[in-house]
């Protein structure tokens, strides 16, 4: 099958390098790379556990405006 494909510069460079070092044709290198990539997607990967955030009370005193916490920063003498 003949098709037109636009490659990113880094991908094209990696393919050209593989062609140069392996002595195979560009077509062979591209087909092998695509086959390898598609074969690895067919096998399920280990599922990574979901990251969960557990909120915790900060313990600020009543009357502290949480939208203006930068006012609590102590400034040293000038």
Task: Summarize the structure in short.
With 78 residues, the protein is an all-alpha fold. It is 40% helix and 0% strand.
Outline type: elongated
Rg (CA only): 28 Å
Mean pLDDT: 85
First CA to last CA: what distance? 75 Å
Give a count of the beta strands, DSSP E runs of length 2 or more: 0
Low-confidence stretches: none
Structural class: mainly alpha
Determine the strand fraction and express it as a percent band.
Answer: under 5%
Number of helices: 2
User: For the report, how would you describe the main beta sheet?
Assistant: none
Q: Would you list the SSEs in sequence order as H and E? A: HH
Helix content: 25-40%
What does this protein look like?
Helices cover 40% and strands 0% of the residues. With 78 residues, the protein is mostly helical. The longest helix is centred in the middle third of the chain and has 17 residues, at 26-42. The termini are far apart. The mean pLDDT is 85.
